[in-house]
Amino acid sequence: MWHGAAWTFVVWGALHGTFLVVERLLRGKIHIKINAFNGVLLALLTYTLVNFTWVFFRAREFSVAKNMITSMFFLNEEGEKIIESFDIIKVFSLITILFICHWLMRNTSMKEVSQKISPFVLGVVWAMMIFLIVIAQGSSEQFIYFQF
User: Is the residue at 82 inside a domain?
Assistant: First the structure.
């Protein structure tokens, strides 16, 4: 109820909970040795499922969520194009970079990495990230946590 009283938030939470329950049940019954190939596939599956559930978090009502989901699967021929191709390329590039960073850092921690990098470089990286976050706000709605 933290995010509001809409049923879409209930569905969002229920889907996340369902995915966690299924994962726990499968973990106990199916023993898969994680390697580079299936690790990438499982990470992409998790990413896809979580992104699917975020549609319900963002949608104000179920009709909007249905429209977005059918558009995500290219089933909405009359759907309005709301994201330009360049924006899709930017998001895809960012996700790819983040995925590579996550993969490279799978056996280390941010603390270890920050201790190996010079303070100046670390400061520049943090400044760039803050700058990119600020300019990426665009004209969309304000981030929900900035409203408190």
Answer: no
Instruction: Give the residue numbers spanning the domain of 31.
Output: 1-77
Instruction: Domain count for the chain, please give it.
Output: 2
Tens digit of each residue's pLDDT (9 = 90 or more) over 100-119? 888 878 888 888 888 888 99
Residue 3 falls in the annotated catalytic set: yes
Task: Examine the domain organization and report whether 118 and 55 are in the same domain.
Answer: no
For 42-76, write each residue's pLDDT tens digit: 888 998 999 899 999 888 889 888 888 888 887 77
In a domain, 87, yes or no: no
User: Could you tell me the pTM of the whole model?
Assistant: 0.58
The 3 state secondary structure assigned to 9-50 is HHHHHHHHHHHHHHHHHHHHHCCCCCCHHHHHHHHHHHHHHH
Do residues 1 and 73 both lie within one domain? Answer: yes
**Could you tell me which residues come within 8 angstroms of residue 54 by beta carbon, excluding any fewer than 6 positions away?**
12
Give the separation between CA 123 and CA 38, rounded to whole angstroms. 36
Q: Which residues have CB under 8 Å from 95's CB, separation 6+?
A: 47
**Residues 3, 16, 31, 102: which is the catalytic one?**
3
